[in-house]
Amino acid sequence: GWSTTAFMLSVLGAAGGLLVALSIKYGDSILKTLAVTGAILLSSLLDHYLLAGPLTPIMVIAGAQVVIAICNYTFDLTPVETKPSPSSDNTKEMTPLVKQDSKV
């Protein structure tokens, strides 16, 4: 005897759990934080439009800040400095920093 609302809430909860598991596996800490805040924003909007929950001006301002932060992180145009990979013809054996005795 599940209602459609209860079924949809359980499906959304399961999908949220899968998204959290994927973000933990593949994301870094900043991305995880942005994903959680984005999920809270989406939940708030769905709560307001589907269940007539409250949506205060403070929540709208916070939601706008989350969207701006996600866009700033996603579309960051800062150049990334790449280090050149060692070439195959320049393979010298490294000398140890500390000389170890062979007698133990």
Give, in order, the helices and strands: HHH
**pLDDT averaged residue by residue:** 79
Kindly report how far apart the N and C termini lie. 75 Å
Count of DSSP-assigned helices: 3
Write down the overall geometry.
elongated
Number of strands: 0
Q: For the report, how would you describe the main beta sheet?
A: none
In helices, the fraction of residues equals: 55-70%
What does this structure look like?
The protein is mostly helical. The chain has helices spanning 4-26, 29-51, 57-74. Helix 1 runs antiparallel to helix 2. The longest helix is centred in the N-terminal third of the chain and has 23 residues, at 4-26. It is elongated and about 75 Å long. The mean pLDDT is 79.
Q: Could you provide a short overview of the structure?
A:
By secondary structure, this protein is mainly α.
Strand and helix map with partners:
Blueprint: H1 4-26, H2 29-51, H3 57-74
Key words describing this protein structure:
mainly alpha, 104 residues, elongated
